[in-house]
Amino acid sequence: MEKKNSIGQMTVFLGSIAPIIGLGLMIYIGFYNRFWNDDWCYNFDFKTLGIDSAIKTYFMTGPEALRGYANNRYSLTLISGLLYLLGIVGAKVTAALVITSWFIGLYWTLSNIAKISGFASRTAIMAGTATLLYYTLYISPQRFQVLYWTAGIHYSLAIISGIFLFALITSQSVRATRSKLIDYIIIPVAILAGGFSETGNTFLLSCMTLFLVQLWLQKKQQSVWAEKALPTAIIAFVTLLFSLMILVLAPSNATRTEVISAERTSLPMTIFLSLRFAFDFITDSIRSLPMPHLIFLLVFLALPILIGGSSKEKLNGVLRNVILPVLVILIAIWLITAAVQAPSVMFYGAPPDPRGKSLARFVMLAGLAGIAWLLGRELNSRWNNTWLHSIAILAVILSAVYTARTVTRVYAELPAYRLRAELWDARDHVIQTAVLEQQKRVEVSVIDMKGLGVQDIMKSRDMTGDWITACSSKFYGFEAIKAAQP
To answer: Which of 1, 61, 162, 325 is deepest in the core (most CB within 10 A)?
Structure first.
């Protein structure tokens, strides 16, 4: 039996290699990243106002508030400003910072959950963390914007900071005694987490609300871990509500809402459409990406079989142990996904853009991982034998092969990023030369990167340009700048 467990551990370890390599490759691609789109608008304010005054654009009204970005998103402004201090290096390390912090937070949270559940395999936690994060990014509706675009990573940062909130809360559960320090630390973390966007805040509030319900129910059943975590979770929830008020009450919102011509959706219709769009997103994800979801499920189905030990003791029964938890998870996925839809539905009567749906993608995969884990644990408790173990090993091998194949597809994107970096650096040289020569109106070559799903930063039909061109012109001190086909 010891040999069997050893083989299981080794299989899980080998299965985690491919997603870890994939994440490393995404980080490497990020080193060819440069400024994009409204990075210029942020950078102009950081250059002329400084980070502290750029954050104060939150209070601007009238035409001044229209700056090419949402002034009320104070957390995004702060993080973008810190990256700006690094210059172009800030853009290069954006993906590395996102993936590294996401991985650490996710590993920390899963480790706490494992301790609460009485499961203590670091190998399985590492494999689960790598697989969940890799597939979240690989099949993200808009991987480029949530990973490489500095002014667009607030969706990822909302998830990451939210994960750290849950890590802190669950840390209370695994401690011998509650920590007051964690209660104090979680306040600034929650303020930061809630300030990246309205969509991100709504997402976090919905997650925290459902978690509070779970903690309350568990506490009624005399659960010690829930009793320890509940006060900290309440603090986080209240602080997130406070941060939402900061977003909503920003003086700069008045000008932003004036330029939104769409009529507001009524509250009842917002709820109805959000639930419908959430259901459509879930079903479309499975229908359009069946293989990645199947492979992902196989990994988490196999983990408790390979690492779960040799006990054949049955748990509390299929109804209580599997069916009810699975139904609860499915409902939670639907409700949280609906919450992600709500802000866009209210203002535009439509689902969020692809980068906004990245929040829903993570929730869906995290929920599916939990469902697969429950099924695998139940199978292991009832039929822990050589045949089941062999099937689990085969599942991990198949998933590793498929994941390795997806990594090659990620690698195929590298030449486009390299080319874009070369063209951007060459164009930047032209711009810097024009700055030294004190030119006022500059024409540069357009960089066509449609293959990356983005348009050129300075693409414009004339010298007056759109808001992106205006921001870049001001940043360099030109009267106008235009990007034309070479």
So the answer is: 162
User: Residues 75-125: pLDDT tens digits?
Assistant: 998 898 888 888 889 989 999 999 999 999 999 999 999 998 887 688 999
CA distance 30 to 417: 8
Distance between CA atoms of residues 149 and 283, nearest Å: 28
Residue 464 has pLDDT above 90, yes or no: no
Lowest mean pLDDT among 34-38, 145-149, 204-208, 297-301: 34-38
Report how far apart, in Å, the C-alpha atoms of 250 and of each of 204, 244, 323, 372 are: 20, 10, 45, 43
Give the span between the Cα atoms of 346 and 349, in whole angstroms.
6
At residue 75, what is the residue type?
S
Top pLDDT among 224 and 448 is at: 224
Neighbour count for residue 425 (Cβ, 10 Å): 12
Q: Flag whether pLDDT at 18 surpasses 60.
A: yes
Handedness of CA 97, 98, 104, 108 (dihedral sign): positive
Which 3 state secondary structure label does DSSP give 406?
helix
d(CA 119, CA 113): 8
Cα distance between residue 373 and residue 365, in whole Å: 12
Determine the Cα–Cα distance for residues 23 and 131; give it in Å rounded to an integer. 10
Please provide the average confidence, as pLDDT, over all residues in the chain.
87
Strands (E), 118-161: none
* Six token digits for residue 323: 């069916």
pTM of the predicted protein model: 0.91
Question: Is residue 483 helix, strand or coil?
Answer: strand
199 in Cβ contact with 343 (< 8 Å): yes
CA distance 262 to 281: 23
**Which pair of structure tokens corresponds to residue 457?**
């930063």
More confident residue, 120 or 252: 252
Pick from 225-234, 240-249, 426-435, 476-485: least confident: 476-485
DSSP state, residue 263: P
**Token pair 């689902």 in the structure block, residue:** 351
State how beta strands 441-445 and 480-484 pair. parallel
Q: How far apart are CA 20 and CA 11, in angstroms?
A: 15
Q: Return d(Cα 363, Cα 368) in angstroms, integer.
A: 9
